[in-house]
Every structure is written in structure tokens, then in C-alpha cells.
Design goal:
- The protein is α+β, with helices and mostly antiparallel strands.
- It is built from 9 helices and 12 strands.
Length: 335
């Protein structure tokens, strides 16, 4: 990859929000190359004085912004700018380790490995949006997590990742079967019906009980399909929720032209998150530690352009209209 017009710190704005191991690897490469090839310490402002990160996708891009409908690498990148999960990866620690994102601390686990107690970080707010009274985003609470996870069981949502939690949480499979049967019989999927293994203990605290000890359980909590969404937005927008995401993440979706362009703007009320301070010795030489401890995001705006072929992408990069790109094989001599 090649970098132009931005630096490792700006590119980190994307890396900080992408939680899958595969996407993280791709973005880490971007950071490493940018650290070697970019001279400026900050992204250049546009005509409005905003710091803008312009990146390409050689694909049609995401097909949805609804976490439970997502399944691709591109949806992971897009959804993860707007929504957040309970856990995320420590980005400069190898091999991979988890750390809290929406949680105040790592969960407590019972000695038998069956019960997980979670405590949410206080002061995390959903984006300001018309779905809330007065248009003001409200605070994230434990019920939001339970509601969001139940959405992956509802067949009406066309979920792509039920396998993440199948045969895992006590009573969840039975809940899914019962509620979908009711919906198919002319009733409704009841999000207020209890699940034996999901217990809200307070405003910020809840428990999850597993069917059996599952070593991968915590790792699934960093997957974007289990991002937390507000019920108000789902009910307010209905089928349009697919195109009108409302999350707690560092960016807000400003516009989306399918297969062409996505624009995000910085969330002015984003909760305190900083660039990682944990790193390995080799990261210093690669320039990946210069932003340690700085509050994120570093840019005001992200513009993602979709390309059907790599040649137009390369030409846009050469013209200074993209901040980095992959280099098509036929253009290696120009790189």
C-alpha cells in the first residue's frame, strides 16, 4: 500500500474502530506503510478547515448498516465507524488480546465458566438523532445490550450471524424458536420476553449464563454483528434503519450512495477513548506509537469511495484525491 496526504496517526482513526482480526491486519499494514512514506504530522484540512481521510474500497462496499445483517469485511469497516461492541482488540498487542470498549472493565467469570457479569462504562451516549425525544441521544444502558443481541435471533431482521451465539447462551435458542414461530403464525416477535441466560441486574450491569463453558465466547463480543443499537432507532426508522444507523461510535453516517460513496462525520459527543499505549518494541521503529494516549478520533470526516476496478482507484490516488491505496501490479514501476 502507498500513502499520500495523510499520516499514520490519521490512518489510525480507521484502525481504532475496526474490530475483526482480518480487517485489523489490513489496516495495520496501512499504518506501517504510512509511517514510512508520509511526511506530514496531521491530515491536511479541506477548504472548510476539516481534517478529512479519503480512502478507497475496490468493491461495491457495504450492503447494510444494520449490524445483524452484516457479514462482509466491508460491512465490518463501515458499521464499526458508527457502532461499538462490548469488547475490542488491543491493536498494538500481538498475539491478539481483548480489552473493554463499551465495558468499564473485563467481565467477571464464575469459577465454572458459565456465568459472565458485565458492567457498562457510564457516560456513553447514542448519537443525537430524531428517534430520541428532543433529538438528543440518551445514555447507553444494560437493556440496550440485551435488546441488540435479541435482534440476531429475529428472522424478520434477516440476520447473517446467528451462528455466533447458537448453542451458547442458556435459553436463547429456545427463545429464538418460540418467538419466530409466534411471528410466523401471525403474532409478533416479543423482545420483552425473558431469556433464562440473560439477566439485567441494574442500569449498567447484566449477567449472561452459558449452556456450557465456551472458550470463544468473549471473542465473539468483539464481532461487529453484536454491536449495540438503540431500540428507539429500530422502531422509529423501521426498514429504513438499514440505511440510518444510530450508534455510540466515533463517527456518524452523513451520506451513503450505494456502490459509490460513504461519508462519515465525527461524533462531537464521543466518549473518552484514546490511541493505545500498550505496544511492542518494533512498533516504535515503525512509527506506530507517536499518537499514544491521544484522544480519538483524529479526523473530522471520513470519505470512502468505491471502485469496481483498481485502475481508476490508482489514477485517483495519483491525482491526489485519495490518501492511500493498494498498488495494482501493472503500476508497480510508478509506486
Amino acid at each position: 500500500m502507498t500513502c499520500s496526504g495523510t499520516d499514520r496517526s490519521v490512518s489510525s482513526a480507521i484502525a481504532q474502530r475496526t474490530r475483526s482480526a482480518g480487517a485489523l491486519l489490513w489496516l495495520t499494514v496501512v499504518l506501517q506503510v504510512c509511517s514510512a512514506g508520509c511526511g506530514r504530522s496531521e491530515a491536511g484540512p479541506n477548504r472548510d478547515g476539516l481534517k478529512v481521510l479519503r480512502i478507497p474500497m475496490v468493491s461495491d462496499g457495504p450492503k447494510t448498516f444494520d449490524p445483524v445483517r452484516g457479514s462482509t469485511h466491508y460491512e465490518n469497516i463501515a458499521v464499526s465507524q458508527v457502532y461499538e461492541t462490548l469488547l475490542q482488540y488491543k491493536y498494538l498487542v500481538r498475539p491478539y488480546e481483548l480489552e473493554p470498549l463499551l465495558l468499564a472493565e473485563m467481565p467477571e467469570v464464575s469459577p465454572d465458566g458459565l456465568v459472565y457479569r458485565f458492567r457498562l462504562k457510564k457516560g456513553v451516549y447514542f448519537h443525537d438523532d430524531p428517534c430520541f425525544p428532543g433529538g438528543k441521544g440518551r445514555e447507553l444502558v444494560a437493556n440496550d445490550v440485551i435488546y441488540s443481541w435479541k435482534r440476531i435471533a429475529d428472522n424478520n431482521n434477516r440476520p447473517k450471524a446467528w451462528w455466533i451465539v447458537r448453542d451458547t447462551i442458556k435459553g436463547f435458542d429456545a427463545y429464538r424458536e418460540e418467538q419466530n414461530r409466534a411471528a410466523e403464525s401471525g403474532g409478533r416477535f416479543d423482545y420483552d420476553a425473558p431469556v433464562e441466560g440473560m439477566r439485567v441486574l441494574g442500569r449498567y450491569e447484566f449477567e449472561i449464563e452459558l449452556v456450557k463453558p465456551v472458550q470463544r465466547f468473549l471473542w465473539t463480543l468483539a464481532m461487529f454483528q453484536l454491536s449495540v443499537v438503540p431500540r428507539e432507532a429500530v422502531e422509529y426508522y423501521g426498514e429504513r434503519f438499514n440505511r440510518h444507523p444510530v450508534g455510540t461510535g466515533p463517527f456518524i453516517l452523513e451520506s451513503w450512495i450505494a456502490k459509490k460513496r460513504i461519508v462519515f462525520r465525527k461524533n462531537p459527543n464521543y466518549h473518552a477513548c484514546t490511541y493505545p499505549t500498550e505496544h511492542e518494541t518494533r512498533d516504535v521503529a515503525a512509527g506506530l506509537t507517536e499518537a499514544s494516549g491521544r484522544r480519538i478520533p483524529f479526523v473530522d470526516r471520513i470519505e470512502i469511495s468505491m471502485f469496481a476496478e483498481s485502475q481508476p482507484m490508482w489514477l485517483k490516488f495519483r491525482a491526489g484525491e485519495l490518501d492511500f491505496t493498494t498498488v495494482p501490479a501493472e503500476y508497480y514501476p510508478q509506486a
